[in-house]
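Known limitations

Files may contain more than one protein. Parsers should not assume a single record per file. Below, a two-record file is shown to illustrate correct handling: read the sequence, read the token line, then continue until end of file.
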Amino acid sequence: MDFNAIHSLLTRAVETVTPAAQLVVRQHGDVQLEAAYGWLDPETRRRPTQPDTLFDMASVSKLFTVAAFMTLVETGRVALDQPVRTVLPEFDGPRPIQPYEDPLKPGALVEVQRGSLTADAGAVTFRRLLTHTSGLPAWRPLWQQADAAAARRMALETFFAYPPGTRIVYSDIGLILLGMSLERLTGQRLDVAVGERAIAPLGLTHTGYLPLPVDPCQQLPANIAPTELCAWRGRRIVGEVHDENAWRLGGIAGHAGIFSTAADIAAFGQCFLDHGTPILRAETVSEMTRVQAEFEGLRRGLGFALWSADPEASSNPFSPRTFGHTGFTGTCLWVDPERDLVVAFLTNEVYHGREGRGIGPLRVALHRLIVQEVDMSLRRTVGNENVSSAEDGIPA
């Protein structure tokens, strides 16, 4: 394959959009492209990004929580349509429906639905959490709580934003509760449960929570892509989770906290093309990647975002069977079964802050170039086979 146009795009991108980036493209189980771009010290252009540089995966972490949870579903430890309260008894009873705090506009509120007064937390199932149809708000300021225990209580006791099952509202709170459920069901801390069930079986040696923020030998930031200059923490974030709520929860949470490389994330995505081997069954993968909920153009599987018809969506250049996830820091994983294709694209685009972000258009442009090259390569291969057949006297 000829990836010159992709290299040109990403070489420009690290000058204008994101300081650092990694890309891995796999097709038919083989790595077709693995490349790193930019610098970990962009102002001085020191320390070039390496293939083993760790990136904060942000919400792509959710897929690991979900995969680990689904191993428990397979063994009958828990059921998708089982109420969450059976595992988390604190999550029960009537709750008010009201606006929630806007995570991107301090002091503003987000109102999803008017006219309904209460929702029953006790009726919310794990399937609702996994499809983001639980009625829970997208976000709550857990980071403002005094400690991790108080933040967990806030998540467990939160109000609702809309009646469960009536729409899709992507919710960090729902995946935080899923992570807490995984801990209760296994008796293990979340990082241990996810590690044993979703990371170690795949041999993902560069994937995990809580990377070391400092290289003790050199007293320099470790080989980790820095993220935002955080006003609240008073420092540039390097080697600690960017997400404030995950940080308050100790850096280990169901919705965020994993650091990884594009190679490891692509290998994780490949697992789902390989029918779940070695962590899940084929029927489980089919259930996770089929349409479970649909609302106003949004389509969700179990944990996975599904292909979108919106031309500005990063999944749009791929085939309609595509599934994957994005992360707020600038990360994404997409799996296209029709092309037998996995794309892991990691950036620290949030390094420049949360205003005027360019990661959305960059993802779309990159994915279009990848699809164009993959499809063109297939046409070239078919054309060469036809020529060979004709030369051998075999009808093409």
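...continuing to the second record:
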Amino acid sequence: MIAAATILFAFPLGFFLRNRLSAYVAYIAIFAYCFTFQTLYLLRAWVGDSHQAFPADPETLPLGYLGVTAGIYAVGFLLVTIGHRVGAKRRTRAVDLDPVT
């Protein structure tokens, strides 16, 4: 879910919002909502005896889950930055309407 949200929202936020900080904050808000919902969904499956996302032992830290979500989070920030650069270049492109004489 967070991977889909990152793909759908990160680049367009950077591209369409002029202020990069606003794009980052919007991405953080979208990611936080999706991360919370995804974690709840996976936690419910873990309580139902599924050990695909979290280890069976409750004392063991789910470092694999942490690594994957942190990687997706970093890729999202990279996409916001790339989107902002592409959008800034597109907005600052000047058009010369005077004919060359």
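Parsers that stop after the first record will miss the second one. For reference, the second record is described as follows. Helices lie at 2-16, 20-47, 63-92.
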